[in-house]
Write a structure and sequence with these properties.
CATH architecture of the largest domain: Orthogonal Bundle
Shape: globular
CATH superfamily of the largest domain: SLC41 divalent cation transporters, integral membrane domain
Order of helices and strands: HHHHHHHHHHEHEEHHEHEEHHHHHHH
Number of strands: 6
Largest sheet: 3 strands, mixed
Strand order of the largest sheet: 1-2-3
CATH topology of the largest domain: Tetracycline Repressor, domain 2
Helix content: 55-70%
Number of helices: 21
Distance between the termini: 70 Å
Radius of gyration: 29 Å
Length: about 450
C-alpha cells in the first residue's frame, strides 16, 4: 500500500475516532497489513491508542505490538487489564512476547506469564539479554529425530502447521535433544518416504551459543545466506532458532546506532519524533562538550606558534584549508575501515596490512593535494616559500590523517569500544590539533622562523 493511501486512511481513522465510532475504526485497522497497522497506530494520540487496542482482535493487536518499537509497545500495554494483555500475548511469537514482558512492569509481567496457556514457551527466553542470540531466538520450532523417515517428518510438519517463516530449514536432534544436523524442506519432499533423516541431513550445521551477540548472529546469517540459525546451550542442546525476519530488525537497529554515532551523538532508544527534546539534548551534550574541550587543543597550538603567525601573517590564510582537508581525509579513512570491520573484510590481525595500505593511499592523495595547494597559494600571491610550506604541510597532514584513521577504529575494536565512536567529529577534532602542529613545524623549518 502506498504512503499516499496510508495518509488518506489515517485522516479517515482520526475522523471516526473523533466521532467515537470504534466499530468503523476497528474495521479500518483490521483491513490493513501488520506493518501498515503499526504505522497508522503509531500516528494516533496515546489516548486513542489505549481505547482502540483492546477493541481489536487479539491477533491484530499482537501484530501491531510486534511491529512497534519496544518502548512504545511497553507504554501502550501498561494500562491494559491483565486478562486483555494475556489474550494479546497468547497470539504473539514467543520471542516477541518475551521482549514485551521484559520491558513492562515485573509485577504485570509475572501476572501475564502465569495466565498464559503455555508459559514455558516464553519463560526460558526471559533469562537471556535482549541483544544476545538467546534474546533474539524463538522457542517455537520443530525438532526432528535422526531416526525419523521423510514421511514421518512431513506428517509432523503437517501436524505442527508452522508459520511460513519457520519451515525453510528443519533441524535434527538426537535422543538427548542435542543438535545433530539440518534438512531443508525440498529434501524432505523429494526423498523416498522411507528414507531416514540421518541419511539425508547435513551434519555440518552452523549454529551459535545462546550468549552470542545479536550483531554477530546477523553477520553469520548474512555471510552464509541463512534463513534460520539454530541456537544451542552449553551442552549443545537445541534451545531455539533465529529467523531471518528477526535479523533484518537487528541490522536496521545496528545501522541506526552506527549512523548516529558517526555524527558524534549517543544512539536514540526510540524513534526520533517520539524522543523528547531533553532526552535528545542529553544524548548529544556529552559528546559536544568533549569535542569542545578537545578543540581547545587547536587553540593551544595556535598560541604556541603565536610568534610565527605574527611574523608570517599569510600562514593564517591556510589554516581552515589545512585542518579541513586533514579532517576530511581522516574521516574518509575511518568510515572505510569501520565498514570493512562491520562486513568482515577486515580483522584485528590485519592492522599492519591496513596501516600500510592506507599509508600508500595517503602518499598518493598527499602528492595530489600538495600540487593543488601549491598552485592555490601562488595564485593568492603569498610567495614561493609560503606556497612550499603549505604544500609540504598538506602532504604530511593527509598521510598522517590516513595512518591515524586506519589505526583508531582497529584500536577501538581491540578495546571493545564501538569503532564508530572514533569517527566523524572525533576524528576531525583530533586531526585539527595535530594537523596545525605539523603545519607550523613545517613553517618553522621552511621559513626559518
Amino acid at each position: 500500500m502506498q504512503a499516499a493511501n496510508l495518509d488518506a486512511i489515517l485522516v479517515r481513522l482520526r475522523e471516526t475516532l473523533e466521532r467515537d465510532d470504534l466499530t468503523t475504526a476497528v474495521a479500518i485497522i483490521e483491513g490493513l497489513r501488520p506493518p501498515d497497522q503499526a504505522e497508522l497506530f503509531a500516528e494516533l494520540h496515546d489516548d486513542d491508542q489505549a481505547i482502540l487496542l483492546p477493541e481489536l482482535k487479539p491477533g491484530d493487536s499482537a501484530d501491531i505490538l510486534e511491529e512497534l518499537d519496544d518502548d512504545e509497545a511497553a507504554e501502550l500495554v501498561a494500562g491494559l487489564p491483565t486478562h486483555t494483555l494475556i489474550r494479546i500475548v497468547e497470539e504473539m511469537e514467543p520471542d516477541e512476547a518475551a521482549d514485551l514482558l521484559g520491558d513492562i512492569d515485573p509485577v504485570q509481567a509475572r501476572a501475564v506469564l502465569a495466565g498464559l496457556e503455555d508459559p514455558e514457551e516464553v519463560r526460558p527466553l526471559l533469562l537471556h539479554s535482549d541483544d544476545s542470540a538467546g534474546g533474539l531466538m524463538t522457542s517455537e520450532f520443530l525438532a526432528l529425530r535422526r531416526r525419523m523417515t521423510a514421511a514421518e517428518a512431513l506428517t509432523a510438519l503437517r501436524t505442527w502447521k508452522p508459520d511460513s517463516e519457520n519451515i525453510y530449514y528443519l533441524f535434527v536432534v538426537d535422543r538427548y535433544g542435542k543438535l545433530a544436523g539440518v534438512v531443508n524442506l525440498r529434501q524432505l519432499v523429494v526423498a523416498d518416504p522411507d528414507t531416514k533423516l540421518i541419511d539425508i541431513m547435513d551434519p555440518e550445521v552452523i549454529f551459535v551459543p545462546v550468549g552470542t551477540d545479536q550483531e554477530e548472529c546477523a553477520q553469520i546469517m548474512a555471510r552464509y545466506d541463512l534463513l534460520a540459525l539454530p541456537v544451542v546451550s552449553e551442552d549443545h542442546t537445541l534451545v531455539g532458532v533465529i529467523t531471518i525476519d528477526d535479523v533484518v530488525d537487528v541490522l536496521e537497529d545496528e545501522a541506526t546506532e552506527d549512523i548516529q554515532r558517526l555524527g558524534g551523538a549517543e544512539p536514540l532508544d526510540r524513534p526520533y519524533l517520539d524522543t523528547g527534546v531533553f532526552i535528545v539534548t542529553r544524548k548529544r551534550i556529552g559528546w559536544l562538550l568533549l569535542l569542545f574541550l578537545t578543540e581547545t587543543l587547536t587553540g593551544s597550538v595556535l598560541r604556541l606558534f603565536e610568534e610565527e603567525l605574527q611574523t608570517a601573517v599569510a600562514l593564517a590564510f591556510f589554516v581552515p584549508l589545512l585542518i579541513g582537508t586533514g579532517g576530511n581525509a581522516g574521516s574518509q579513512t575511518t568510515s572505510t575501515i569501520i565498514r570493512a570491520l562491520a562486513v568482515g573484510d577486515l580483522e584485528l590481525k590485519h592492522v599492519l596490512r591496513s596501516l600500510w595500505h592506507e599509508l600508500r593511499i595517503g602518499l598518493l592523495l598527499g602528492v595530489g593535494m600538495a600540487v593543488v595547494a601549491y598552485g592555490r597559494a601562488m595564485l593568492w600571491g603569498t610567495g614561493q616559500e609560503v606556497a612550499l610550506t603549505v604544500s609540504i604541510a598538506i602532504f604530511c597532514i593527509v598521510v598522517w590523517a590516513n595512518g591515524l584513521g586506519s589505526l583508531l577504529p582497529l584500536l577501538a575494536t581491540w578495546l571493545k569500544v564501538d569503532p564508530t565512536v572514533v569517527s566523524g567529529p572525533a576524528m576531525s577534532t583530533l586531526v585539527d590539533a595535530t594537523g596545525l602542529f605539523i603545519y607550523f613545524t613545517v613553517a618553522r623549518i621552511v621559513l626559518g622562523l
